[in-house]
Amino acid sequence: MASIALIGGTGNVGRRLLAEALRRGHTVTVVARTPVADLGEGVAFVQGDISADPAALGAKLTGHDVLISAARFATVDADHVLAAVRAAKIPRLAVVGGAGSLEVAPGVRLIDTPEFPEAYKSEAVPGAAFLDQLRGVSDVQWTFLSPAAFFGPGERTGQFRLGGDAFLTDAAGKSAISYEDFAVALLDEIENPAHTGRRFSVVY
What we know:
204 residues; Rossmann fold; two-stranded antiparallel sheet; 5 helices; 27% helix; 25% strand
C-alpha cells in the first residue's frame, strides 16, 4: 500500500480521490490551507499553502510515496508542486489534469479551437502550461491524467477507456467521465504505473 499526500483533497475531485485511496487501503495525508473536520477516520492532515511556501510544506510531507496534486491550476502552478515534491523527496507525482490541452488534431489543442469556452480558459491555459513544464522534468516520476470534456459527479462504474494526448469521444460524439471513475483511473495508475513521464487521458 502507498502513502499518499493529497493536495486539494477537500475539493470535488479530491474528495473522490481520497475515498478511492481509502477504499483500496492506502494511507492518505490531506494538505489544505485551513483545518478540515470531516476527512474520515485514519486520514492525516497537514496545514499549509503550497503556493505561499512550497519548500516548507514539502518538509512536512517527507516519507510519502506519492504526491497527488488536485489543486486548481489558476492558483497552483508546476513550480509550486515540483518544489514541494523535491523538498519532501517524494519520488512520484500524479497530477489531476484538464481536457483543454488534449489534441483534436496533431498539434492542435482543444483550448486552441474557436469553440472552446472563454470562461474556462482561466483554468485551462495554466493547466496546459503546467503539463508543458512537466514534460521537461526528469528528476521526478510524474504523470498527468486529463479527464474528458464533461467532468462531474456521477457513478463509480470502473468501466472507461484510457487514451493519450488525443481528445476522445464516444460513438455519439460525447466526451465525459465522472469524478468517481477518474479517481479509479488515477489510483490504478498509482498502483500499477504505466504512464510515467507522460500524460494520459480517461473517457467513457
